[in-house]
Amino acid sequence: MQNLPDCAEINKYIKEYFQYLGLNNTMDCFEAEWKQKQSNTRQSKQNNQIKNDDLPRLYLLLKSDNNKTKREINLEKEMKAQNKKYQQILQAGRQIFSVSINLLQIMHSFKESVQNENLHETLENYKIQLGKYQKIIINEGKPEGNELITETVMQDHKTKLFKNYKDNNIDGMIEALLSLRVNALQIAPELRKNLVYELIRNDIFDIEASEKFDFLIKMLDINNQSLKHAITSLVSVVSSTLRGVEYLTFGNKYAVIEKIIKILKEQENGSVTQRFCLAILQKCSIKESVIPVLVEQGMIDWVVHLIKKSTNGKIHVFCLDFASAMLANITHTPYTLQYFEQHPDFTCQYMENLLKFIRDNIPVSVLMHILICLSYLSKDTFQQQIDYCQFVEKISEFVEFYSQINTSENEAAEIDKKTVLDLCAHMFHPKDTSLDNSTTLELNELKTEDRIREYENEQGELIFECFQDEVSQ
């Protein structure tokens, strides 16, 4: 037990906070009640004693008390464990580089005896790429790039890419493409948007200069999985901004989109190349003029089939997340809604599948995307399908079922549960806020292209996809 602390300083902060928010009535009530409390305290000295464990967090914070909650202690333990794993990964990376350098030295010793004019250039390119990755390891994962790739380097890569394409040198094409991507991954996140703009300005795929997509399409047509991986990974970098999407659909032509869809459908589910194809298509789906191509190419059925497969087997979560996000982008557009109106049987089947998915064991991010899709179908226009599928009843059953899930032992799961239920409250009960504990969640209106441009201008930072199992490609 200890003496009750002098709370005058804390009260001052609280009153300043109320004044800042303009809560004058609340402040008056607070002062009146505090005076009453002080009067009662004088009558009983016993009330001047308080357990240390019962002290409010605000007092402990202002008095620099070192007491930590159970959650803070657990977070510290997790941080130490993560840091230990991080150091192990760095050490493993250093060992890999050591082995790689030794292998390069061995290859150099055979260079003179092998009659291959491209071997020297290949070895030099490998050394350059290893050097770039080594810098990332030395900097312990922190991007060191404070400058963009120079004009000379960018043009040099483009020249090499074109030369290797004309010479039908697949290994050379892969090296040039991967080298560009390594530069993209190495650069600081806040500079990546400008890097994408530089790739477009230098017309890396010769789209604007030729006003055609022949160069990119012909590279994608080459039957080599490593080359497809190298191209799609760089196309994914370019498509990370709306300007990049417009570059890939130059002149409102969609040959690249159609080719990426074809490659996607040829890939094994969950493969690295499939992930990059989905990343490209999901990013391109923010442009409404792309949606008709996605619908006509059967991407709605393809995504539904992928999610179905995931309920019976393992599908990479990235594929599910990006595919379902693309599905939400497709579903919300006027073109697709009109398509649904014109194809009532298709819409009914689609609605039935989505309503079934929400009760399946799927990742939370995918569940949210499916709920968003369902919200777009929750319109009078589709009343016949809504009645046939028992839409309202199944959503109500889902909310009741999901609200009963016990997440008390898992803070992340509790946050996910709250987000899903808040989403349902906003989308399916827009006039009923009793289910909604959120004060920040907005209605499910996706950004227009103008707003996306504005967002990109403000944000600046981009995330480029990179997967651990790419090395096996």
Automatic annotation (TrEMBL):
| This protein's record includes keyword Disulfide bond | no
Q: Name one GO biological process term.
A: cilium assembly
Give the molecular function GO annotations.
exonuclease activity
TM region(s), chain numbering = none
GO CC aspect terms? centriole; ciliary basal body; ciliary tip
Q: Which UniProt keywords apply?
A: Cell projection, Cilium biogenesis/degradation, Exonuclease, Hydrolase, Nuclease
Q: Where, per UniProt, does this protein localize?
A: Cytoplasm, Cytoskeleton, Cilium basal body; Cytoplasm, Cytoskeleton, Microtubule organizing center, Centrosome, Centriole
In terms of PROSITE patterns, this protein maps to: LISH (PS50896)
Name the domain of life: Eukaryota
Query: Mind telling me what this protein is named?
Result: LisH domain-containing protein ARMC9
